[in-house]
Design goal:
The chain has about 450 residues and is an alpha+beta fold. It folds into two domains: about 190 residues, FAD/NAD(P)-binding domain, CATH 3.50.50; about 210 residues, 2-Layer Sandwich (D-Amino Acid Oxidase, Chain A, domain 2). The chain is about 30% helix and about 25% strand. It has eleven helices and 19 strands. The strands form three sheets. Strands 1, 2, 3, 9, 10, 11, 12, 18 and 19 form a nine-stranded mixed sheet that branches. It has an eight-stranded mixed sheet with strand order 6-7-5-14-15-16-13-17, with helices on both faces. About 50% of the residues are buried. The structure holds flavin-adenine dinucleotide (FAD).
């Protein structure tokens, strides 16, 4: 048996989960006893949930297990910034040419349409906002990055708007940013609510097991998964465990797993809202610089801030890490919203991003009846949704142009093992941060 030593934990106070209307409803049950399934999917993030649904649609007569260590919505899928990104941006640059961008856009739009359809069909209350997205710059030095982004958008035929000065301040309720590129197709959500709603509405032939970390596994026919109080055997197994993939002894030397952190304030008071945000609609902004700060103004009138990266091979964020991140968040928050300087954060948490060096994903057959999907590179709400969906079709031997496009983008570069990996990550993070200036 391969023992799984690194397992997910709750890193901080998970703001989206805690404020989700469904946080008190239980989804699934703890796995105890002996079980036998046709398919097992480990990891109930956006990837695993999309995969389990598509497997159930394609194989209605089979039994499918979806297994999650935490509660659904407590993993990275419920800790992120909640952008369902339609247009490749600087976190997921890939090949810069227009044809590649259009292909990526088509896959992202497939995911957004699918998620929207499921949200409507099952009445998932996830603060879904067709709000678009700003990519914003504070410093003149970074306006060039916006111009480069705009050139790429133009070449690929995507619509966008360049907004600056007073017009931008009016839309955002802060005059911190000099300019931004607004693209209309992005959707903003409470990601914990969305992934929970998706898991709760899976077809009947999917059994969801939560609070059930896999502690060991033996790959074979069948695959055997061990839990604290039970065992699960499955003929086909898919790993959608994100940054924990290496812990399962697969996807070695491909993923750079980084912690990044987020904070969420209490809702603005009526007086704060009336004074500063009465004409401001909910918005989300990523930064013109990859190491810059992501900010949102949510429909329930909270401010969300995300920045800071740490490389932590333990895959846990310490209290000291969380305190350091919260201090960075406060600085970024007060720089943007000096009029709200006393507004405290109600929640601060950390979450893992699984990056690959060339932004490719892992979408592959590991061996007979064993598959891996990972490497969402910080854009996994849309990407995980389409990779999960198409992995089920790939397993069923259903060829398509979409699968060809995914396969072409699934050759992640080799990453050296420790200690070189850690040294490289620290150097890269230092270099990125040094260039980000006031975008943080
Ligand atoms: C702070 C932050 C902000 C981000 N912002 C955005 C954004 O705005 N938009 C966007 O698209 N992406 C964003 N991302 C990235 C996004 O969250 C990921 O790309 C996405 O969660 C990947 O989904 P996944 O299902 O592949 O993996 P995960 O969400 O990581 O799901 C894997 C699951 O596997 C489970 N698991 C692991 N080990 C075991 C085990 N031993 N037994 C059982 N279960 C196990 C984990 O608990 C986890 O729930 C952000 C990430 C962070 C951390």
């Amino acid at each position: 048996m391969h023992s799984i030593r690194k397992r997910p934990a709750i890193d901080g106070q998970l703001g989206w989960f805690e404020t989700s209307p469904s946080s008190h409803t239980s989804i699934g049950q703890r796995l105890t006893g002996q079980h036998r399934f046709d398919f097992a999917v480990i990891g109930a993030g956006f990837t695993g949930v999309a995969l389990a649904r598509r497997l159930a649609e394609l194989h209605p007569q089979t039994r499918i297990a979806l297994v999650e260590a935490l509660e659904v919505g407590q993993g990275a899928s419920g800790r992120n910034a909640g952008f369902i990104i339609d247009i490749p941006h600087n976190v997921d640059g890939g090949e810069a040419d227009a044809a590649a961008s259009r292909k990526l856009h088509a896959l992202n739009m497939f995911a957004i349409d699918r998620l929207r359809g499921l949200k409507d069909r099952f009445g998932i209350d996830c603060a879904w906002q067709e709000a678009g997205k700003y990519m914003s710059a504070h410093e003149s030095a970074h306006i060039g990055a916006l111009e480069t982004f705009a050139e790429g958008l133009k070449a690929a035929g995507f619509s966008y708007e360049f907004v600056e000065g007073a017009a931008l301040s009016q839309r955002l309720g802060t005059d911190y940013y000099k300019a931004a590129i607004y693209t209309p197709g992005n959707v903003l959500v409470n990601p914990a609510s969305l992934v929970r709603g998706l898991a709760a509405s899976l077809p009947e032939n999917v059994s969801v097991f939560t609070g059930s970390p896999v502690t060991a596994c033996q790959y074979g026919a069948p695959h055997v998964l061990a839990f604290a109080d039970g065992t699960l055997r499955a003929d086909k197994l898919v790993l959608t465990v994100g940054s924990f993939s290496e812990a399962f002894g697969r996807v070695r030397n491909r993923l750079a797993t980084l912690f990044t952190y987020a904070s969420l304030t209490e809702p603005l008071s009526d007086a704060e809202h009336a004074a500063h945000f009465s004409d401001v609609q909910p918005w989300g902004s990523t930064s013109a610089h990859p190491a810059g700060t992501t900010v949102r103004y949510t429909p329930d009138r909270r401010i969300f801030v995300r920045n800071t990266f740490h490389y932590r091979p333990s895959l846990h964020a310490s209290d000291a890490d969380l305190r350091a991140a919260a201090a960075h968040h406060r600085q970024s928050f007060e720089a943007r919203f000096p009029m709200l300087a006393r507004k405290p954060f109600a929640y601060t948490w950390g979450g893992l991003i699984s990056m690959t060096l060339n932004h490719h994903s892992v979408f592959r057959r590991e061996s007979d009846n064993l598959f891996s999907v990972v490497g969402c590179n910080g854009v996994g709400v849309a990407k995980g949704t389409y990779l999960g969906h198409y992995m089920a079709e790939f397993m069923a031997g259903m060829p398509s142009a979409a699968i060809d496009d995914i396969a072409a983008g699934s050759h992640p570069n080799w990453i050296p093992p420790e200690p070189i990996r850690g040294i490289g990550a620290a150097m890269r993070l230092r270099r990125e941060l040094a260039g980000a200036g006031g975008e943080v």
